[in-house]
Specification:
alpha+beta
């Protein structure tokens, strides 16, 4: 009475513990041609003895289309379409063949008693896309035409027997192709900064039986948010050959500063021909990782009084200067925070240098005895050292120092004097301090420096530090 229940339990366990490959296999369509030539005169005795006519087949395809021989629906991974070609009239292979059985009969003897004939059939299965022989086989048998049709029957049976050595054909082709079914995805960074690049390594690319995939197999890689920088473009994918089994994919996160999640998807393809686009088929891998971004700005304004020479000129007694700012473009040092292994410490990354340019016209009340002049100031600023450390200095966690290189030009406008040579400086230390991460904060020592940052993001980073202390 317990037999049905035992059967149910056994069948359930069988499904659960069946090899994982049964859930992984990608079953493609494969077009297989058969051309087994009988290269003899249709009017000859041997042609007639072997049972050929002008339109007859060799019987080779019978094995792969007839369920009696394990063909037809039994060949299902890959699914196989058999296309028989005329064995008497050689012709080019039709387009679209993935594989071709290419073979030929050779006959020794003239069929006369007692020797009869010695028949040899050699066949090879060829990968048409890569020119590779997948498997070859040969059979030789004697035949004496003792009665009508005897050699024809023997030839047909021996042909079928040789064809069966290629069965099951679907397993033979699957084992040969080793289509990618699984792989490992290795990230060099997680999280990655918005706008940053990294290498994603795809390795251990294997088929359903855990064997390395063929080097000519192709996989397709897609990023949802960012960009794949290398590979061959195909719609939203980039295509890569498996090669030696390890692929370096160059990835770039979106430049826009926002916290996000990225997903990389990898697909295999059934397309064997390297001259055809690798159409995506089954997903074989996916990886999700974080895109991190907290950015800020240090705005550096220029003050003409900060330049020593202009300060001397502007303080000449009785000139009573009035100043007009003609141009004032502050330097904006843009930076982003980069996580480290310590959840309380972040690197500060600046992209490029920050330029500034300003021009001021200084007009004296006494134009006869005083100089009217303009002063222009061009400068580049860069961070030389910068980090955020909530553990080391909770109230003022943001330390930075800057360098400046500048060019200052002064022109006298009310005297016929040659222009003063420009003053240029190389990179020189300019400023350094510890700041609170507070939006709008201005430096106490040098008020020309001002911070802009999203304080909500700062609070989140502080909380994360406290949780993981």
């Amino acid at each position: 009475m317990f037999r049905p229940l035992k059967c149910l339990i056994f069948c359930s366990l069988l499904i659960l513990f069946s090899p994982y490959e049964s859930f992984l296999k990608t079953c493609c369509w494969r077009h297989v041609g058969t051309q087994i030539l009988f290269p003899y005169d249709p009017n000859s005795k041997v042609f007639n003895d072997m049972g050929f006519t002008a339109d007859s087949g060799s019987g080779w395809d019978e094995v792969f289309v007839n369920p009696e021989h394990g063909g037809g629906p039994s060949l299902n991974c890959p699914l196989i379409d058999i296309i028989e070609m005329n064995p008497v009239k050689p012709a080019p292979a039709p387009p679209g063949l993935d594989y071709k059985f290419s073979g030929s009969y050779s006959i020794a003897g003239d069929g006369s008693a007692p020797r009869g004939y010695t028949v040899t059939l050699y066949v090879e299965l060829v990968d048409m896309a890569h020119g590779t022989t997948v498997r070859s086989a040969e059979s030789t048998w004697p035949c004496a035409p003792s009665e009508a049709g005897s050699c024809a029957k023997t030839r047909l049976q021996e042909t079928i027997n040789l064809a069966k050595t290629f069965q099951p054909l679907d397993k033979l082709l699957y084992d040969y192709e080793r289509i990618p079914e699984s792989l490992d995805i290795e990230l060099k960074k997680d999280p990655i900064l918005a706008g940053e690049q990294m290498t994603i390594t795809l390795k251990n690319i294997k088929d359903a039986n855990s064997r390395p995939s063929k080097s000519w197999q192709r996989i397709l890689v897609k990023a949802e948010k960012g960009r794949i920088l290398n590979g061959t473009a195909l719609a939203e994918y980039k295509v890569f050959e498996v090669g030696a089994g390890s692929i370096d994919v160059e990835y770039e996160a979106p430049e826009k500063c926002q916290r996000d999640k990225e997903t990389i998807t990898i697909m295999n393809s059934c397309v064997m021909n390297p001259n055809m686009n690798a159409v995506p088929d089954q997903q074989i891998g996916t990886k999700t990782f974080d895109i991190f971004c907290v950015e800020g700005q240090i705005i550096v304004s220029w003050d003409p009084w900060h330049d020593q020479l202009s300060s001397v000129l502007l303080n000449v007694p009785k000139c009573n200067y009035s100043s007009t700012v003609l141009k004032n473009v502050p330097a904006v040092i843009k930076f982003r925070l980069k996580p480290s292994d310590d959840p309380c410490r972040y690197e500060v990354v600046q992209k490029g240098t920050a330029p500034s340019s300003s021009e001021c016209l200084n007009t004296p009340s006494d134009m006869k005895h005083c100089l009217k002049f303009s002063i222009s100031h061009q400068a580049d600023y860069r961070l030389t050292e910068a980090y955020v450390d909530f553990r080391k200095n909770p109230d003022r966690p943001f330390f930075f120092s800057t360098d400046i290189q500048a060019k200052i030009s002064i022109k006298f406008l009310n005297v016929p004097a040659p222009p003063m040579p420009d003053r240029e400086t190389g990179w020189q230390p300019h400023h350094g301090n510890n700041w609170p991460l507070a939006d709008g904060y201005q430096d106490e020592v040098l008020p020309l420096y001002q911070l802009r940052i999203d304080e909500k993001e700062v609070d989140r980073l502080k909380e994360n530090c406290l949780k993981k202390k």
